[in-house]
Design brief:
It is a single chain. This protein is α/β, with parallel strands linked by helices and 282 residues long. The protein folds into two domains: 87 residues, 3-Layer(aba) Sandwich (Rossmann fold); 130 residues, NAD(P)-binding Rossmann-like Domain (Rossmann fold, 3-Layer(aba) Sandwich). It is built from ten helices and eleven strands. The chain has a six-stranded parallel β-sheet. It is globular and about 50 Å long.
């Protein structure tokens, strides 16, 4: 039976550490969050970020723009926030409406304020081991693994998925921690065989409950990044699930993250940590 990795508990520990540091050193920190349109999920995320800021003692500046906002108007706002010395971090909530180029918007954010860690400057710094902002979800996963007492150095790690937001930075972070890393994706052959070699299996493929025992080595640490809403006919008493079939995999794993309550809470906790770092840099 696997040890359940409690993301709620660990994320709370990190927020408490950020709060204590801000109070101890009397740090003034501010995060500007921009949302364009009325996407319900995005509004929930923004509300959660505001709540986390309030808890940690970080000023939260919210910019809620209409769906019809032009790319030029959004870039002008980012430029203004880049020049505002009272703003430490800038976060643009994704996805953006289709008429706005997400890449252009991300690259417009000052690298010193890129607390999401999505820009090419931030990713480049990570790839060569320079100091910079690390994408919040992969950084949170490292904290989950370490704070659960799982050794990373020397272990074989398989990352499923190669997205710019999770898969690629996750692989680089595991390399930084001295793991031996393999990335598998939709074009990889013999995926099950490769995954069964993993001491640490990190799954970020966006497919509901795809990963069963067939993919998992006995005693592996399994980190599930996915989150999906279950249909009534498949809910097994749950409303949400991940990319991993938890009930099938849990008896085989040594450590496993639940969905919800695993990776999800860590993203906002690490965002708070990045904002604090940005304020210290200033």
């Amino acid at each position: 039976m696997a040890v359940l990795i409690d993301g709620k508990k660990i994320s709370q520990e990190i927020k408490d550490e950020v709060k204590a540091e801000i109070e101890r050193d009397n740090i003034k920190a501010a995060l500007a969050v921009i949302i364009v349109g009325d996407d319900p999920a995005s509004k929930v995320y923004v509300k959660n970020k505001k709540n986390a800021c309030e808890y940690c003692g970080i000023e939260s500046l919210s910019f809620e723009l209409p769906e019809k906002t032009t790319e030029e108007e959004l870039l002008e706002l980012i430029d203004r926030l880049n020049r505002d010395t009272l703003v430490d971090g800038i976060l643009v909530q994704l996805p953006l409406p289709p008429h706005i180029d997400e890449d252009k918007v991300i690259e417009a954010i000052d690298p010193k304020k890129d607390v999401d860690g999505f820009s090419t400057r931030s990713v480049g710094a990570l790839s060569i081991g320079s100091d910079g902002f690390v994408s919040c979800t992969p950084a949170g996963i490292i904290e989950l693994i370490k704070r659960s007492g799982v050794e990373i150095a020397g272990k074989e790690c398989v990352v499923m998925g190669r997205s710019n937001i999770v898969g690629k930075p996750m692989a680089m972070l595991m390399l930084r921690e001295n793991a031996t890393v393999t990335v598998v994706h939709s074009k990889t052959k013999h995926i099950e065989d490769i995954c069964r070699r993993a001491d640490i299996l990190i799954v970020a493929i966006g497919k509901k409950m795809m990963i069963t025992q067939d993919y998992v080595k006995d005693g592996a640490c399994v980190i599930d990044v996915g989150i999906h809403r279950l249909d009534p006919d498949e809910n097994r008493g749950k409303k949400l699930c991940g990319d991993v079939d938890f009930d099938d995999v849990e008896p085989l794993a040594s450590y496993i993250t639940p969905v919800p309550g695993g990776v999800g809470p860590m993203t906002i906790a690490m965002l708070m940590k990045n904002v604090l770092k940005a304020a210290r840099m200033r």
